[in-house]
Design a protein that fits this description.
6-stranded antiparallel beta sheet, 13 helices
């Protein structure tokens, strides 16, 4: 049995159990390389990293190592939309077609911004093949998106839009921004740069790829050792290459997730699944929102709306794509009995394929983030992330 890697970084007094839980992930859950960060307002209380950033386990995970986080990106995209609402450029309850007339095609004229970003629009897949290289042509992608037909009556059900959600949001932002900026550019200028954090939706050419950790798929016996929460229905669809979940995860066709740590994947903006950055960056942004530090370009009234407690009953809880109860609110996930996170129902955040997780906990003013290199198979609640964020919340209790 190989020796456990050293854990680097710092924890504040009272948060030592988070470091213990982080070590246990390497000892018991097959962790290869990872980072976890927690901020209380603008103060870091947990900033830890350990392990390796390559599959061969020869390169150490370093303080500034970044990793692709897939759908955890959606939270940063949702903040950009919240900023647009704060500026009066966007209304969550207005029809998308008010800002993007072509979107109204095929009976989509009444779909609201809220329904679109809360996965109720029935647009999780594309009716034609679109590949990674095609995403650079924003006008062509916009025309394809506008031409889609809903798979269910919008506003009556929900089903996760793994990749298309970000594409629709990106085009919506491009339509309403007075300067025609992309969502990734606005995030850089209005969020990442002012906070001094390393998170990118569209990796700049001057950021070296050796800062980006390689990802590792979980295969063979490791599935039995570490992955006891495999969603069998989804696994069957992916194996058989058919079904709604398979089509949604391949619309567009971006390639195998384990190969996402490459320049062509990360340089093209796809705000639903293409973000790359540090755990520190994600936790910092979420904590600024949770604690109302005044550092984000979002009005407190809008932050109040993001923190609204779970309001079930708008649509049936069963997710038509993930086949599990889910709840979405203004582009974020909310806690549910099957996916609890945060200290109260006011928490909000997003998770990514493979296990990355980040959220705001407004009740405590806390921002949490975790990013790994080994891609787990749990749908939402990766056991490595779960033990870390549950331990974190426990540390905040008197």
């Amino acid at each position: 049995m190989s020796a456990l890697p050293a854990v680097h970084g710092d924890v504040d007094s009272g948060f030592g159990p988070v470091a213990d839980a982080f070590r246990r992930n390497f000892a018991r859950r097959g962790e290869i390389g990872a980072a976890v960060a927690v901020y209380l307002g603008d103060r870091p209380v947990v900033d830890l990293w350990a392990g390796h950033r390559d599959r061969g386990r020869t390169l150490p995970w370093e303080r500034d190592t970044m990793a692709p986080v897939f759908s955890t990106t959606k939270g940063m995209a949702a903040f950009v939309l919240a900023e647009a609402v704060s500026r009066g450029l966007l209304d969550y309850d207005a029809p998308v077609a008010r800002y993007w007339p072509e979107f109204a095609a095929h009976g989509k004229e009444s779909i609201t911004v809220r329904q679109l970003i809360d996965h109720q629009a029935g647009l999780p897949e594309l009716d034609r093949v679109v590949r990674l290289r095609d995403l650079a042509d924003l006008d062509a992608v916009a025309a394809i998106l506008a031409d889609q037909k809903p798979l269910w009556r919008p506003g009556t059900r929900h089903g996760y839009h793994p990749i298309t959600a970000g594409l629709y949001q990106g085009e919506l932002i491009r339509r309403i921004d007075p300067r025609g900026r992309t969502l990734g550019r606005i995030f850089a200028e209005r969020f990442a740069d002012p906070l001094g954090v390393d998170f990118f939706i569209g990796l700049p050419a001057d950021v070296p790829m050796d800062r980006v950790a390689e990802l590792s798929a979980t295969t063979g016996l490791d599935l039995l050792r570490y992955e006891r929460e495999v969603p069998l229905r989804i696994a069957f669809q992916l194996y058989a290459k058919r079904g709604a979940t398979y089509r949604a995860l391949n619309s567009p066709r971006l390639g195998a997730p384990a190969r996402a740590a490459r320049r062509d994947y990360l340089s093209v903006e796809h705000p639903g699944s293409g973000g790359v950055g540090t755990a520190r960056a994600l936790a910092r942004v979420y904590a600024a929102a949770a604690a109302r530090t005044g550092e984000l370009p979002i009005d407190n009234a809008i932050l109040d709306r993001l923190a609204t407690a779970d309001t079930p009953g708008e649509v049936p809880p069963r997710d038509l794509i993930l086949h599990t109860p889910s709840h979405y609110h203004l582009g974020f996930r909310k806690p549910t009995p099957t996916f609890p996170f945060g200290s109260t129902p006011h928490a909000y955040g997003t998770t990514g394929f493979g296990g990355s997780t980040a959220f705001a906990d407004p009740t405590t003013g806390l921002g949490f983030a975790y990013i790994p290199t080994r891609l787990g198979t749990a749908v939402l609640d990766d056991p490595r992330a779960r033990t870390l964020h549950h331990t974190t919340i426990h540390c905040t209790k008197p």
